[in-house]
Design a protein that fits this description.
Blueprint: E1 14-19, E2 31-36, E3 41-46, H1 54-65, E4 70-77, H2 83-101, E5 108-115, H3 122-133, H4 141-147, E6 156-164, E7 167-176, E8 189-194, H5 200-213, E9 229-234, H6 249-271, E10 279-287, H7 290-301, H8 304-311, H9 317-325, E11 338-341, E12 344-348, E13 351-352, H10 358-365, E14 369-375, E15 381-388, H11 392-399
Parallel strand pairs: 4-5, 8-9, 10-14
Antiparallel strand pairs: 1-2, 2-4, 3-9, 6-7, 7-8, 10-15, 11-12, 11-14, 12-13
Helix pairs in contact: 1-2, 2-3, 5-6, 7-9
Length: 403
Amino acid sequence: MKIDTLEFHPIAGVYLGSCAAKIKKNGSTDLVVFELAEGSITAATFTQNAFCAAPVTLAKNHLKMAQPRALLINAGNANAGTGERGLQDAKQTCEWLANELGCDAEQVLPFSTGVIGENIPMEKFQAGIPLALSNLSITGWQDACKGIMTTDLVPKSVSKVVDIDGHSVTITGISKGSGMIHPNMATMLGFVATDAKINQACLQQCLSDAVNLSFNRITVDGDTSTNDACTLTATQQVDMPEINSVESSAYKAFATEINQVMTDLAQMIVRDGEGATKFVSVIVEGGASQAECLKVAHAVALSPLVKTALFASDPNWGRILAAVGRAGVDSLDVNALKIYLGDVCIVENGGRAISYTEEAGKAVMNQTDIDILIQLNRGDASETVWTTDFSYDYVKINAEYRS
């Protein structure tokens, strides 16, 4: 599906360099360096997969020790499932970059994406880091955006200049992801930066909240990656009062903008889902709690039978009904709920809606963007999850991933 990317607005204090270090088999750009100005602060969220990759473990540790001066990202190799050697290799790459930049190794955060279970090619890292640094530029976002891609068909980026309490603030972000998409913390890889002046506690709160409402609300195939990570860096370059309270008007305005950036990036991942032909919003209203709304939304969004029906543009409403029924909602009154495809009611009073026709259902299913609305009618909570269909190409892409 077509994804529009916007003009990049540079972030004062963020320099990016990229190169083709030949980590990926196709020879495309695969190594990216972010150099962050002194005084910048960074917040992060990481995968909750127990088999988290070596760079995830190391990045978490480094964040506890110092504020980052650099991010080091590679595509083509996940450095996951590689044991102690993988951790030592990740440490070595941080040391190489730190030596080039004149900072401590603990001030480098590593990130990797690609094939799991293979050791990273150290000689390619060692040669690639100076090459990437030779391209450092405040305008290097576009190459960086392409350099973090794996099975992505298109780069994903958002960049805007916004007003925060009368001050002009820039926010620019990139992400990657197409398959193995069911985040349980953040996106597959996402890097957002701003020149705003904000303290660490507020920045981390802003990122955690935004991730929960965006990247934690998307699913392509139900697989949570070993490498998921998302960072938000503030370079403190704008001449403005520091945002130091989540109750302030400045924080609320800033958080609103970050939420939108993260949501846009998350939805781009869904639209670029492996083999995807449909963008589907599963909306659950009238739940007793947000948790139960998410249960229902995920049951529908993750159902292979629902997703294959979406690909076929087949209004097989029974598959949606069955998914809602097995979601595990306590004491669910099936006679009280309603289910809609777009504005077409398909289920009410425990069965097919009297007004429903196959022609009306088919007309909705033929659309590229589809809403599935489930009204539980048992409370005031609501949630939305974004997902895709399952196509022949999804199987083909993943069957041939390592070839």
